[in-house]
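Look over this today:
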Amino acid sequence: MVFRKISNDLKECALELWEKGWDEEDIQEALGVSRRSLFRWRAIFREFGTVQKPPSPLRGRVRTITRHILDAMADLYHLHPDTYLDELQLWLAINHDVDISLSGIQKNLDQVGLTLKLLHKIARERDEARRAEWREMNDRTTGRRRGRALIGHRADISHPFVRGERYSLVAAISVSGYIAARALPGSVDSFSFFDFIAEEVLPNMNPWPDSRSVLIVDNCSIHHTEALADLVRNAGGCDNRSTGGSAN
């Protein structure tokens, strides 16, 4: 007999006629079904109470990472969104006895929506209880730029924002190397630059036209003041307001 789709109504009708005393041959001839089908439908009806066998809950191979483990992974990335895949692999092996490849982990993360994105760093100093801890820690901090979070959510991480005292470095260099250098707290202004030239640079230069007699500065406004021009002229230099980039 050629395979054809038989509706549940027809199956129920066949069983009902059989229950009422119809012969198997009469049912087969009237409905166009086989004897084997009749017995199979009756066995299914007696076991499940319906002529249609329910689908099996087990489909495909058993998952290595269960729903419970996926929820645990989501909780882990909520607390530590900068966790690397190899670190997650080790965490699964230790905490859940799961041995899975990095590509398998990546596939599972994609399926639950834990995507890779730029980390949104939240200053840990916002928490006053942690401010004292942050002040005592080493300022040389390193941070990861990317982490994972569910689709539609930012990957937030508590991270120390180093806001210590800042320094600026100013230096004079010749074709032979550094002549002078000075580290200054904060930013360099025209006054601190003037002091640096007067105290560190000019004492190591010579009047024109000897070696180290030309001072060249760039276009920064703090480099072009009348007081600095007078200082250079009084030291034996000439005032040439052209722009340049080195000292001789």
